[in-house]
TrEMBL record:
Entry annotated with the keyword Signal: yes
Keyword terms: Signal
SUPFAM superfamilies linked: Folate-binding domain (SSF103025)
One Pfam assignment: TrmE_N
Signal peptide: 1-21
GO biological process, one term: tRNA methylation
Xref: Gene3D superfamilies: Probable tRNA modification gtpase trme, domain 1
Domain GTP-binding protein TrmE N-terminal per the UniProt entry, residue ranges: 51-125
A GO term from the CC aspect: cytosol
Species of the source: Rhododendron griersonianum
Name assigned to this protein: GTP-binding protein TrmE N-terminal domain-containing protein
PANTHER family per UniProt: TRNA MODIFICATION GTPASE GTPBP3 (PTHR42714), TRNA MODIFICATION GTPASE GTPBP3, MITOCHONDRIAL (PTHR42714:SF2)
Length: 129
């Protein structure tokens, strides 16, 4: 199954929101009526201008089972740490991130989480530093 355009958009939006949260954990300009997960659009633009999320998977090719998103920049690792959980044999504690330390040139398998700790999809993640 191909990575659907709506899912791609959702994933990039999710990554940019995490980038904004990583760039500024508290903001006085945040509209409290929108909830704690809402971010100021200016923060998203600022965070995404230095940390970039780009769809690598070809849009014109045949459907595939793997979609690739590249995340690069100074906040890339902290963003992934907020969204990614490695899959282990131990049961995952909801709300508590395991002590995860990325290793360069190693591909890891895990899950991508939304802001409520719900699994969005299974992912393979690799870092090159």
């Amino acid at each position: 199954m191909a990575l659907l355009p709506a899912f791609r958009s959702l994933l990039l939006n999710h990554i940019c929101r995490a980038a904004a949260a990583a760039a500024s954990s508290s903001s006085s300009s945040r509209d409290e009526r929108l909830g704690s997960s809402a971010v100021n659009p200016d923060q998203v633009v600022a965070a995404c201008s230095s940390t970039i999320a780009a769809i690598v998977t070809s849009l014109g090719g045949p459907p595939g089972a793997v979609g690739i998103v590249r995340l690069s920049g100074p906040s890339a690792v902290s963003i992934v740490a907020r969204l990614y959980r490695p899959t282990t044999k131990k049961k995952r504690n909801k709300g508590k991130a395991p002590d995860w330390r990325p290793k360069s040139h190693v591909v890891e398998y895990g899950v991508l989480l939304d802001r409520h700790e719900n699994v969005i999809d299974e992912v393979c993640f690799g870092i090159v530093s």
